[in-house]
Specification:
Helix content: 25-40%
Order of helices and strands: EEEEEHEEHHHHHEHEHEHEHEHEE
Number of strands: 14
Number of domains: 2
Distance between the termini: 61 Å
CATH superfamily of the largest domain: Vaccinia Virus protein VP39
Strand order of the largest sheet: 10-9-8-11-12-14-13
Number of helices: 11
Length: 347
């Protein structure tokens, strides 16, 4: 009848059985402990559409609320009969809440009207700004909540910031022992900064091939230097993992993953295996894809960004060394997990 997906870890389905309305609750963990439902169960609930027939089993929280252990779609709604009109739950009898109505913020309207428990009279810009600060605090960025804006230019500066960070903490001599591997580097913004601006040979490892990798700023820099596109970093259009060029990894001076998505942990593991420095800035976690990641302290699945950062920080070089956390000065996911083996450990 109705579906409410609050996150990848929590989904509510309102169903009707014999004219009685029930609420199915699919959540992957409870107080940090994994549930029988797990992420797979939440995804099954998320994949259900209004009008579908579902089968669920679990434990009753009360007379009309079932905490789901197993859920499956038995039959899909046939759109040939026309779209199924969702039926939202009836308005709550509870009193008003001192919070802003998200429907009103996002659309400028609310179907509940005056009956809505949430406020429709707040300053939207102020509310959105406060929520951004709250999200950044939850992402573990307490040191720079007010230091950096959320503008596009601030985000674009991250390549310059990371390049300067590597030169300061790893050192030009160490970086010059071989090419730096920029894994999952997209159009090669970081690789350009390292090779063209700072003279550090870099290889871009990115499976996607772009018709043009250069930005307007990068073209201007090349023109001022009298250089052509032949000077930009070499591009290896391949995905990392089994079968990737072992000689390239063996010969590199360092592995870097700036928001490298699925390749982030591979960068760390390969650097540890080969006793090489690494630097990653984790972004997306992909908990459904990597269900073998277990948080070193809680024992729960790694599902949030902060979980992933702590999971990576718990890794260790066999030869000794340090794995550290730094906060870099740009907007967005700016927690930097970096490590150096014992022989290269900076003071």
């Amino acid at each position: 009848m109705h579906r409410r997906c609050l996150s990848k870890k929590l989904c509510f389905l309102d169903v009707v059985v014999d004219e009685t309305r029930y609420c199915l609750v699919a959540k992957s963990n409870c107080d940090g402990v994994a549930t029988a439902c797990g992420l797979a169960g939440v995804k099954a609930a998320t994949d259900a559409r209004v009008g579908d027939t579902v089968r669920a089993a679990g434990a009753w929280e009360d007379a009309t609320t079932l905490l789901v252990d197993v859920l499956a779609v038995v039959e899909r709604w046939d759109n040939a009969c026309g779209p199924f009109a969702p039926v939202p739950p009836p308005p709550s009898a509870k009193g008003p809440v001192d919070e802003v109505c998200k429907f009103w913020v996002n659309t400028g309207a609310c179907s509940s009207g005056a009956a809505c428990r949430y406020a429709h009279d707040r300053d939207v810009a102020t509310w959105v700004a406060s929520k951004k600060l709250e999200r950044r605090a939850l992402r573990g960025q307490p040191d720079d909540l007010a230091a950096h804006d959320e503008s596009k230019s601030s985000k674009a500066a991250r390549h310059c910031v990371v390049a300067e960070f590597l030169l300061k903490h790893i050192g030009r001599e160490a970086l010059g022992k071989g090419p730096v591997l920029d894994v999952g580097g997209g159009r090669g913004g970081l690789a350009f900064e390292l090779q063209i601006i700072h003279g550090i040979e870099t290889v871009l490892v990115e499976p996607r091939v772009y018709e043009s990798r250069l930005t307007r700023r990068q073209r201007k820099i090349l023109r001022k230097r009298g250089a052509g596109e032949e000077c930009i970093p070499r591009h290896v259009a391949a995905a990392v993992g089994a079968g990737f060029d072992e000689a390239l990894v063996q010969g590199c001076s360092m592995l870097v993953g700036l928001h490298a998505d699925q390749a982030t942990e591979w960068v760390v593991d390969e650097a540890i295996r080969l006793n090489k420095p690494f630097c990653v800035l984790p972004c997306c976690v992909f908990p459904s894809l990597f269900q073998d990641r277990i948080h070193p302290e809680t024992g729960a699945l790694v599902v949030s960004h902060q979980d992933f950062v702590e999971y990576l920080l718990a890794k260790r070089y066999a030869c000794g060394g340090e794995i550290r956390l730094s906060i870099l000065p740009f907007a967005g996911r700016n927690q930097c997990v970096w490590g150096v083996p014992a022989r290269d450990t900076p003071e």
